[in-house]
Amino acid sequence: MGSSESKPQPDLKSMLKRKPKPELSAPWRKFDWSQKEALKEKLESFSPSHPDVTDIKILVAGQIGAGKSSFINSVNSAIQGRISSRALVNSSAGDSRSFTQKLTGFAIRNGNKTLPFVFKDIMGLQPEALAGSLPEDIISAVFGHVNDGYKFNEEQALTLNDQHHTCDPNLSDQSFCLVYVIAADTIQFTDDRLLDKMKIIRQKISDKGIPQVLVMTKVDEACPLVKKDLKKTYTSKKIKEKMELCSATTGVPLTNIFPVKNYHDEIETNDDIDVLILKALEQIIQIADDRLEDREIY
Predict the structure, then answer these.
(1) CA distance 242 to 257
(2) Going from the N-terminus, what domains does the chain have, and what CATH number goes with each?
(3) Contact between 24 and 85 (Cβ < 8 Å)
(4) Sheet of 175-183: strands edge to edge?
(5) Going by DSSP bridges, is the β-strand pair 175-183/212-217 parallel, antiparallel, or unpaired?
(6) How far apart are CA 41 and CA 39, in angstroms?
(7) For residues 118-134, b (16+ Cβ closer than 10 Å) or e, as one string?
């Protein structure tokens, strides 16, 4: 009788210790990393769908420290091909107050050419009841009732008789998209009170058909795989989970959520950073212009 070799039994302890792979076998969202120049050309040739609108306004809101102003600077940097710092940012980590105090509009330029969209930067959101920008002011700003230069009051919303209030805004004063900026590395710690504020804003502007986009920053800080190689963004399991969490907590659909890395300590632009920023920008502008086209529905 022949003797048969016994097969080695799997080590259960080793199997339990084995970590799941952090990367998917294929990208979960189709993304062309070579489209930077095509995106720039498309954005530079864009014109609003309504003849009375010279530039499309985009309001940018976000929690303090999420990278709201840095995203605006990163958009400018990606378009201009050099690092831009027009929107002032606070470099102090852990600061509990918003560095942005006034409503400020930033046109996006490429050399001497001004592109037909403007980002409106506002005071950051905070969880506390009387801290950061008030939901009422953000809603008013979206609908064009707040003029540039308005200094946000954490205790009282803009009043009708304030010099910065516009009773009857025209189309060019209104924002046709609200962009939330959320940091990927802190989304799981977001305070419920802050989410409640965001839900109030979302409900009010959704009633008027204003779309919302979510820009998820700091993807490199949230995932070691992406920190090493930004092109792993759409194969990273962690980033996919973060985006799904963002969608579940804010109500913004995944199709309107875009992961990016802002420029932070770089002194030169980078193609991989640029293409993520420019793709997010292209989608934001298209979504806003679609709303402008559909304005009569609401």
Answers:
(1) 10
(2) 31-297 (3.40.50.300)
(3) no
(4) 104-110, 113-121, 56-62, 175-183, 212-217, 257-259
(5) parallel
(6) 5
(7) bbbbbbbbbbeeebbbb
Contact indicator for 56, 176 with CB cutoff of 8 Å: yes
| Both structure tokens of 11 | 């080590």
Give 184's strand partners.
none
Q: What is the pTM of this model?
A: 0.86
- DSSP lists the bridge partners of residue 178 as 59, 212
**pLDDT recorded at residue 231:** 97
**H or E element at residue 4:** none
* 56-62 and 175-183 strand pairing: parallel
Question: Given the DSSP bridges, would you call strands 104-110 and 113-121 parallel, antiparallel or unpaired?
Answer: antiparallel
**CB-count burial class (<10 Å; 0-12, 13-18, 19+) for 46:** middle
Q: What is the CA radius of gyration of the chain?
A: 22
Q: Show the tokens assigned to 59.
A: 């309001």
> Tokens 């502007």 correspond to what residue?
205
Q: What angle do CA 283, 286, 287 make, to 5 degrees?
A: 85
DSSP labels, 96-116: -S-S--B-EEEEEEETTEEEE
How confident is the chain (298 residues) per 10-residue block, as mean pLDDT? Answer: 55 60 92 97 94 92 85 94 77 52 86 91 66 79 88 75 81 92 80 79 90 95 96 97 92 95 94 98 96 73
Residue written as tokens 């940091």? Answer: 183
**Cα 161 to chain center, whole Å?**
32
Looking up tokens 């920053």 gives 217
- Closest-CA residue to 179 (of 237, 238, 260, 241): 260
| Amino acid sitting at position 165 | H
User: What's the CA gap between 75 and 39, in Å, rounded?
Assistant: 12
Q: Smallest Cα–Cα separation from 96: which of 134, 62, 132?
A: 132
Report the alpha-carbon distance of residue 117 to residue 56 in Å, rounded: 4
DSSP 188: G
